[in-house]
Amino acid sequence: MKRDLEYRYERKFLIKTVSYDWVIHSIKMNSALFKPLYHSRNINNIYFDNDKLDSFHDNVDGIANRQKVRIRWYGDSKGDVSRPVLEIKNRRNSVGAKLAYPLPPMFIGEDINEREIKKLILESNIPELIKTKIMLLRPKLLNGYTRAYYISMDKKFRITVDRNLYYTKFNLHQNSFKEHIIDKSSTVVELKYHHIDDQFADVIANELGFRLTKNSKYVNGIYALYY
Asked: Where are the alpha helices (H) located in 19-75, listed in sequence order?
């Protein structure tokens, strides 16, 4: 594996039975001595897939080598977006790596549609091969959440905590964003670390006391809005 691609493990925990405050308490009490890394911030994503939803089905079927394409930005879900980023997340068995490419500023409103999104990508400095691939995909889902960040004392392990999740269907021609689902009952915890530190992650995960789950926000959103 290439180190420069930052391949890392991600252990995910979907929590519905305890409060957000209890989740944060469990993280702070861990022997790895986690401390806040950044201020909490809102994350928004537009996910891409083909008409057969191959990315969705690859995840559901547990395909070892799979890929996810999204545009990500921070802050408000609507309005001016000054620094959107195209992200391509590659999954190889239990580890993943992410490539990121900056995009021109965009505006998220009712006029946003597939044509505008693809125009944005074509006008960017993304490698042409990647542009060609994305032109075969379509924006399918907009989602977002509030994320808190923690890092261990030795800086080898990071934890993110997501809440206030929402899912909105992305229509191809016009988007009023009225067809959406808000999930206030779920908290998603992810423990992230480089693959060489996997042997120490068991101790951290066991102390957290949360049940390890297979969880994908993209999959959850597609299930909720398309099925």
From this structure: 20-28, 54-60
pTM of the prediction? 0.91
| Rounded Cα distance, 25 and 20, in Å | 9
> Using CA atoms, how far apart are residues 91 and 63, in angstroms rounded to an integer?
9
pLDDT single digits (tens) 132-144? 999 999 999 999 9
End-to-end Cα, the chain, rounded Å:
37
Q: How many CA atoms are closer than 13 Å to the CA of 202, on its beta-carbon side?
A: 2
62 and 91 in contact (C-beta within 8 Å)?
no
Report the C-alpha gap between 187 and 195 in whole angstroms. Answer: 25
Identify the DSSP state of 109.
Answer: S
Cβ neighbours of 175 (radius 10 Å):
21
Closest by CA position to 193, among listed 184, 185, 202: 202
CA–CA separation, 26 vs 157, rounded Å? 15
Per-residue pLDDT averaged across 99-116, rounded?
A: 92
Contact assessment for residue 188 and residue 215, using Cβ atoms and an 8 Å cutoff: yes
**Segment 154-212, tens digit of pLDDT:** 999 999 999 999 999 887 776 667 678 999 999 999 999 988 888 899 999 999 999 88
3-state secondary structure of 190: strand
